[in-house]
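Thread: "does anyone have the structure for this chain?"

Original post by V.I.:
We have the sequence but no experimental structure in hand. Need at least a predicted one for the grant figures.
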Amino acid sequence: MKLMKLPKIQSRSKKSVLRPAMLDEYTTADLREIHTVVIFLKSVVDWTGYCKMTFTQSYDLCVAAGPALILAIYEARDMEPMDEKYLMWDSWADIPLFAGFFSRPLEKNWAAREVSAPPEGLAHLNYILETVPEDLDAYTQVGSATYPQQGSRLWTSATWEHLYLDPPDFLRGRLSFNRLETDTLNTFLGPHAWPTSIADLIASIYDDIELQPEFSDSKMEDALCGDCLGKLIREHLHLWLLRRKVDDGWVPPEDCWYGYDCNTQHATSKNHLCAPTK
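Reply from O.Q.:
Generated one for you, tokens below.
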């Protein structure tokens, strides 16, 4: 994308004019790409440290400061680099300069050109890739090679650390209601189940657990959609937990007939990390 020269503006005090004027030098296709990049940058900020922004200007400040700040936030897994940027300002009265840093000028350009704004959801990603390379087009689904719906997000070992999930929710049957097992799982994963633990968990499922028949052809290098990856975790997490407990010295008692579907959950008197047999 070629940078354009900013047109001369008589009154430079009119800050609200500068950005729309600059963006107006780009084609509509370029503006849609800029819009998608801004959404991506904001999503990186949102993901980092599972932060919950209390006001939207925080996102705009990060974007206004530039990709270098967002990269620093990502690498630190912490919002401290952004806090340092806040110290640059004498008062909160300065911050409104950054409200809607890109969204507002883009809205003005959409309106001036009489074109619709990019759609909500993942469809806007289509403005970045016009075509998908053949070697990336197919993804692995349980039992077959197929194609995801347009806009589907694919997950590989390179992106597992970005997953949002609470591991106990992925235990089979009623195990997610069993405090003994969920507490043990959280202990093995760490007190907060940081994203790196999630990546290690999935890798360990592939490396250390015998995969269920429907996943027998699945490999760690495969790209899976969210549904298939969730199914992989759900089908094997209780087996992973059983393996970890045994490796930690636990001697399993007799298997419960109802396994992970048991309503009683006999605490330590029975093993529920198994499939029902009755």
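V.I.: this helps a lot. The mean pLDDT is 77.
O.Q.: and Residues 226-247 form the longest helix (22 residues).
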